[in-house]
Design brief:
By secondary structure, the protein is an alpha+beta fold. Helix content is about 50%, strand content about 25%. The chain is built from three helices and ten strands. A hairpin with a 5-residue loop joins strand 1 and strand 2. It starts with 9 loop residues before the first helix and ends with a strand. Keywords: Membrane, Transmembrane, Transmembrane helix. This is Chromosome segregation protein SMC.
Length: about 300
């Protein structure tokens, strides 16, 4: 049977087949390239998103370390070194993540380092919290000890003050006190004999006579007696080099002597020769012993 009735001959049919194959190949190639490009874009988006996430994670870790510094704790050398290492690693990661494109391998390495850094900071913070707790306990203990020490110091100061007061009272109570103090003026004859006088023009010396008030607290021993003499104008008659201390102050004395006290009602006498001429009026004397005023007396010379 003849094929003359078929409008498309054999050669044209082959061309059609070829064009169909080419079109299918082109469509397949386009589909492959589209899918590949889509996957690459998805991969790029995934890597870019992971980079941003890691950057944020690193910044959070850095903030955690900054919180530690805000606590103002005194860190050990070990903790200081660990923080320096952590901050060095943070700087490295931030620099790496700041770069443009990262390979999948670089991204996985960064992820691993961030996980390790996060774990380190967790342990580090636990150490810091433990240190803070220990410091708080030590501070409480120190404050307690300080309060106890202050209380003990206050008690010691109070006891010391009471002791000083008692010692002062004992010392005051043990000081010699004079009684029956009276003064006699004398002129001295060439023979050395003393003649009692009442006139200033003939007087040469004063003799102070006194008894000691019985005192069981007073030491039965030698006691230094100091005499101060004042003229009618109230001026002290004394050598400026003669100094002693009594009633809490340093002062000059006119004369001094030592007596032996035995609490046996012994009477004592203390002579004082005036280096100047006696004048009319009232002369007064003050006796001192054991750092306290012992007695007083006056005499009027005509």
């Amino acid at each position: 049977m003849s094929d003359k009735s078929d409008p498309v001959n054999k050669g044209d049919r082959n061309k059609i087949y070829f064009l169909v194959v080419v079109i299918v190949a082109l469509l397949g190639t386009n589909a492959y390239l589209f899918i590949k490009d889509k996957k690459e874009n998805e991969r790029f988006v995934t890597i870019s998103t992971e980079k941003d996430r890691l950057k944020l994670e690193v910044e959070k870790i850095e903030v955690e370390l900054d919180k530690v510094n805000a606590l103002n704790l005194t860190l050990s050398d070990k903790l200081i070194k660990e923080q320096e290492l952590a901050r060095g690693k943070i700087a490295e990661l931030k620099a790496a993540l700041q770069n443009g494109a990262l390979t999948q391998e670089q991204l996985e390495t960064a992820q691993k380092e961030v996980r390790e850094l996060r774990e380190f900071v967790k342990v580090y913070n636990e150490d810091i919290l433990r240190l803070k707790k220990e410091n708080s306990l030590l501070k409480n203990e120190r404050d307690s000890l300080k309060a106890s020490a202050n209380s003990a110091s206050e008690r010691a100061s109070e006891l010391e003050k009471r002791n000083e007061e008692l010692n002062a009272k004992v010392k005051t109570g043990a000081a010699l006190k004079a009684s029956n103090v009276h003064i006699i003026a004398y002129r001295v004859k060439n023979s050395g004999k003393n003649i009692e006088v009442t006139r200033a023009s003939s007087a040469k010396k004063l003799s102070v006579k006194f008894d000691i008030v019985p005192n069981q607290l007073a030491q039965k021993d030698y006691h230094k007696i100091y005499l101060r003499v004042f003229d009618p104008a109230g001026n002290l008659i004394a050598n400026e080099n003669n100094m002693f201390e009594a009633d809490g102050q340093e002062m000059q004395f006119s004369s001094s002597t030592s007596i032996s006290y035995n609490d046996d009602n012994t009477s004592f006498n203390m002579d004082w020769i005036n280096p100047k001429e006696f004048i009319k009026g009232e002369y007064s004397i003050i006796l001192y012993a054991d750092g306290y005023t012992m007695g007083r007396a006056e005499i009027v010379l005509r």
